[in-house]
Design goal:
Distance between the termini: 26 Å
Radius of gyration: 29 Å
Structural class: alpha+beta
CATH topology of the largest domain: Triger factor/SurA peptide-binding fold
Number of helices: 12
Strand order of the largest sheet: 5-4-7-6
Oligomer: single chain
CATH class of the largest domain: Mainly Alpha
Shape: elongated
Length: 342
């Protein structure tokens, strides 16, 4: 997980509170649909305790904020998807406990936020609101009208961020030498099979097609071939596929991702062996169906070069190290903690 976004969570639930009580005055970007039948819909429910961490109580609003961070599309789709809601809620619970433990440890270490940083963060928070009235409405609903409580929430977020920056982000860096060493030690991962990238236009017969229907399909396929041969570019071929192709790839302009040779039908592979990049095949018959392929790229089997993958590989290795550090920190903080879910 990437850090540095905890202040956004304040903004997210502030938006939810604004919708619940002053929706008629809120711009569209802040309007939140009712998350789910079980989601908090009033102040009493939102303040309901859900977990106690070393005596500090976290509420339904903290949990809901994290749920919407994990699944931000909930705001557009009327709440969490029912089949994923239990897993999302469980993950959100773990995260708010983790953040509270981090916050408590930051306080124990006497970490602090400078006044200048506090001012900048509060200004950033205020910028999310179109008018002073909108900000004041959220201050009333989420922070009980208390500027001090708002500042405490912002300070808490910043301390969590600073702690994680020190304990995780500064420690999860990956050196070029580490990336190269991983590449050299895992050659199998970077071998790739022979692949073809292409577009298709397919003419598919209806179920239980009659002889007359099959003849009509043959005529339609021949007309499609003439039009496909006239297409000079991938875009032109794709637009034609959208218009006349019967296969599911038509919605993607006939585009297929790279396909390994062992996944190709023998007649298609045989056609590719006779084609150059950019060429359009003749009619390829597959049982009672016809397809036309536009060859875009042929990549022989081989090993992906280090320079091609090093940037993405560095990101992957850094994320792996970040997750390992976070997990170890979580276990360490939980070891002596008293956690009571309600």
């Amino acid at each position: 997980m990437k850090y540095g976004t905890f202040l956004c969570r304040l903004i997210l639930l502030a938006c939810m509170a604004a919708h619940a009580q002053v929706a008629s005055h809120a711009p569209t970007r802040f309007q939140q649909p009712n998350p789910s039948p079980a989601a908090p819909s009033n102040t009493a429910e939102m303040n309901k305790p859900v977990v106690r961490v070393n005596g500090s109580v976290l509420t339904e609003i903290d949990l809901t904020r994290e749920e919407y961070t994990i699944f931000p599309y909930a705001r557009q789709h009327g709440g969490l998807p029912k089949d994923l809601a239990p897993q999302i809620r469980a993950g959100a619970m773990k995260m708010i406990i983790f953040e509270e433990l981090v916050y408590q440890e930051a306080l124990r270490r006497k970490m602090a936020v400078s006044p200048a940083k506090m001012q900048r963060s509060e200004a950033e928070f205020r910028k999310q609101f179109a008018t002073p009235e909108e900000f004041n409405a959220v201050l009333q609903t989420e922070f009980h009208g208390s500027q001090q409580l708002l500042e405490e929430k912002i300070r808490r977020s910043m301390l969590i961020d600073a702690f994680l920056q020190t304990e995780i982000e500064t420690k999860c860096a990956v050196t070029p030498a580490e990336v190269k060493a991983y590449y050299d030690k895992n050659p199998a991962r970077f071998r790739h099979p022979e692949t073809y990238t292409f577009q298709t236009i397919s003419i598919l017969p209806p179920a239980n097609a009659t002889p007359d229907q099959l003849k009509e399909d043959r005529v339609r396929a021949q007309k499609a071939l003439v039009a496909a041969k006239a297409a000079q570019t991938s875009v032109a071929f794709g637009l034609l596929a959208e218009k006349i192709s019967d296969d599911d790839y038509r919605v993607m302009m006939g585009q297929h991702k790279p396909v390994a040779v062992d996944q190709l039908a023998p007649p298609v592979l045989q056609a590719f062996h006779l084609m150059k990049t950019g060429e359009v095949s003749g009619l390829i018959q597959l049982d009672q169906a016809y397809t036309i392929v536009h060859l875009q790229e042929h990549v022989p089997a081989g090993v992906t070069k280090f320079d091609t993958v090093k940037v993405q590989l560095a990101k992957e290795l850094k994320e792996t190290k970040r997750n390992q550090l976070r997990s170890a920190l979580d276990q360490k903080l939980r070891k002596e903690a008293k956690i009571e879910e309600m």
